[in-house]
Amino acid sequence: MSTIQLDFAAKERFELSYKDENGDENGEVFVIHRAPLSTHERFVAFLTEHWAGNFPTWLSPVQVQIITISEKQKKYASKVASMLKEEKIRVSVDDSDATIGKKIRMHRKMRPAYMLILGEDEEKENTVSIRIDRKGDSRSGDQCNGMPLEQFITELTIEVNSRSRKLSLVTKED
After folding, report:
1. Class of domain 57-161
2. Burial class (CB in 10 A: 0-12, 13-18, 19+), 114
3. What is the mean pLDDT of the chain?
4. What pLDDT band is residue 9 in, cutting at 50, 70 and 90?
5. Residues in Cβ contact with 32 at an 8 Å cutoff, skipping those fewer than 6 apart
6. Percentage above 70 pLDDT, the chain
7. What pTM was computed for the model?
């Protein structure tokens, strides 16, 4: 990923020269550029290609996407989001009026590590339903219903802090 580059045009652009051992002006200058990780854009492109957009949780721009089934869960969604943010989890909430199917399809394209589906049962029991729904992921569509909220936060924090490469909260038997 790193690059070293010889720049033959920089000497004219910056009017570079040096004085040789005789004190004469010498214009035979070559500029060497180095970038240990190359450009940031190239590095991000490499990671995106490597993970096919399905970043591990710790690297995912949105680690948890909260989706409410109806407007009745807005307050619970806000509470869950606040608790996750306290643990430094990157979270986004969709409490729009769109249907649950539309919300899932829309957020699937964004490839969050986890989607939390919050309905009446989850609010009543202080739980979350976890869904993995990432394009190209063999576990796409896997879901775990009724996980206690505190357990989810604890396990997610461990997964993020350990920089695990795998999504561990919803497992599929191989």
Report:
1. alpha beta
2. buried
3. 87
4. confident
5. 4, 5, 6, 7
6. 89
7. 0.72
Q: Say which amino acid occupies 6.
A: L
**Tokens found for residue 141:** 């569509």
Q: What is the CA radius of gyration of the chain?
A: 25
Instruction: Name which residue leads in pLDDT, 42 or 104.
Output: 104
> Assign residue 62 a region: left if phi > 0, alpha if psi is -120 to 50, beta otherwise?
beta
Cα–Cα distance measured from residue 80 to residue 91, given in angstroms and rounded to the nearest whole number:
9
Rounded Cα–Cα distance for residues 83 and 19 (Å) = 64
| CB-based contact 126:73 (threshold 8 Å) | no
Nearest to 58 by CA among 171, 166, 137, 173: 166
Q: Where are the domains of the chain?
A: 3-38, 57-161
CB 64 within 8 A of CB 91: yes
Integer Cα distance of 79 and 144 in angstroms: 20
Tokens of 126: 């202080």
DSSP string, 87-134: TT--EEEE--SS-HHHHHHHHHHH--SEEEEE-HHHHHHTEEEEE---
**121-142: b or e for each residue (b if 16 or more CB lie within 10 Å)?**
ebbeeebbbbbbbbeebeeeeb
Q: What is the mean pLDDT of residues 74-93?
A: 97
